[in-house]
Records
---
Amino acid sequence: MSQQIFLIRHGETEWSRSGQHTGGTDISLTAHGRTQAELLGRALLGKTFSAWTSPLSRAQETCRLSGVEHAQVDDRLTEWNYGIFESRTTLDIRKEIPNWSVWGSPITGGETLEQVAARARLVLEHVTAATNGDIALFAHGHILRILAACWIGLPPIAARHLALDTATISMLGYERETRVIKHWNLAPPA
């Protein structure tokens, strides 16, 4: 099999810079984030793929600024719903709940890790069935990390080991018939 899936995390926002959990809050890119998105476009130049994007503006803006004009919006690519922890940093949350982690603690008013993984699996099923060619997914840090873990058959909790910076490109693919991570967390050259 030769199909590849490009995972593209949106550029910097004020909250990604500060470490605040940003699920469904619709925050725009910073000026630096817009520059990052344009650099992603240079790295993607000449590549042909079908594209999908999260409905949130930071992902759609990254997609557009990187030169991808025709991306389908897929609500399942929305970032993790962090519930009552939305807009808060892990350090801030740990003042009230010692040892709190998005990966292993209850997410009051939000989604469980398994619910996010179920969405990720549905995205993978949908996009791989929709085209035989390469795919680009413009989305967010946690959903993309979980999607990658699901791609290679690991439990979603394994995604905690896959750090993903803003404005990076990762690639999923195959080694013969085995699903693999071919590249991870690559920043485009400046």
Note: The chain has one domain: 5-186.
---
Amino acid sequence: MVKVGYQGVRGAYSEIAVLKYFKGEADPVSYKGFKELIEAVEKGEVQYGMLPVENSTTGTVTKSVDLLKDYNINIVGEEYVKVEHNLIVLQQTLEEDIKEVYSHPEALKQCDELFETNQQMRPIAYIDTAKSVEYIKKENCKHKAAIASNRAAEIYNLKILKSNIQDNKYNTTRFLVISNSKKVIENGDKISLYLITSHKAGALFEVVKVFANNNINMLKIESRPIQNKPFEYCFYIDTEGNVQNSKTKQFLKELKKQCIELKVLGNYVSGKREEKL
């Protein structure tokens, strides 16, 4: 069994991602926050970490993505988890009893329609989805509910009052598997990059041109603020390729010439998305 860190508590979608990716061969280890999780991976306290980076409804999980560049870690895998939110309550609670609904801010945003059609329910941001279930169990108040996974309801022996309440039926979260190992994944087909361009007109165009000239398929580009340089931006880019391939090596060499800073965050096997609803 390998130790795999995740943010949250048992029943969180991150734990579900751990169990899915490692197929029962993992010993999941809970961490309070993304920073604590990444630091544990870097120090070798756990062999791997499971980090949510993107949701198909609400977009990038910025709190986790912004940390990737700052640590000596390597992305070694990817997993997609279909997010099926549930309204979870005490066994005796009825729908008309509910006044407060707790969950992670991302989960609350993914269930806007619930609150639009139930004005008496007030969304309240909490640490994470599964932790909110733990909280309402402890509070033992019929006026409180939580939004979380089926697994969280089972763990805390609470009732699912409404299932699949997310606005988007295709709602999916993308997770990255991180490690402090620099071992190359032989069959890696996806590369994640962090880069900073010159702060001048046309700088990003020159970067994109390198992709086009080398016939490299860019899968995603995301700009994020540089913390110590107000209104200047760095970029996270996902692209197809393998760093051992001569074509990819040449591409990265040309790309580096157009960047103030370039870091390969990982080269890994792309995860399979769940198409079924």
Note: The longest strand covers residues 74-82.
---
Amino acid sequence: MKKLMLMAALAVFGFTNVNAQDDTSGGQTSEGKWLIEANTGNQMLGTTGLYFSSSDGSSSYNIGLDGGYFIMDDLAIKAGLGYGGYSPDEGDSTSAFSYRLGAKYYFNSMIPVTVDLTGASGDGAENYAGETPLWLGVGAGYAWFISDNVSIEPGLRYNVSLNEDYTDEGVLQFNVGFALHF
């Protein structure tokens, strides 16, 4: 976990230095800018979000980040990675890696709409039939820029399972995202 946090800190430092060399473009969602975000998560999904829960001696957690690059004004291509686990009161702990690939478009540079594919793999990702999750997610929210480089982005997201052997249920979730724009 310490290595993951160190890698995240180095990535933020690297993106900051790259952007500091050329800061001639306009707003936070302009072409050529970078985006790094952390979102609240949902333990049912393979997630690149952040969460922790504990109940009756069992606990589950996830840590992850998404990053993106604006290929044109207001449109970012994104990728994310996450790592999580479950520790029951009794029995063996499990863990899983999660990934996300997608796009994020900011209408009027402040209303983000996302479309992405999210999945997970590892001993903690499989259901009882040995299937792993794969979700298509669509979300929308509002980007509240609290400074030139930081936004808080609350929003709603709906995830549709693409693997009916894993689950045939969709998941609606409320997220709060925290984004850095460089």
Note: Residues 1-25 have pLDDT under 50 and may be disordered.
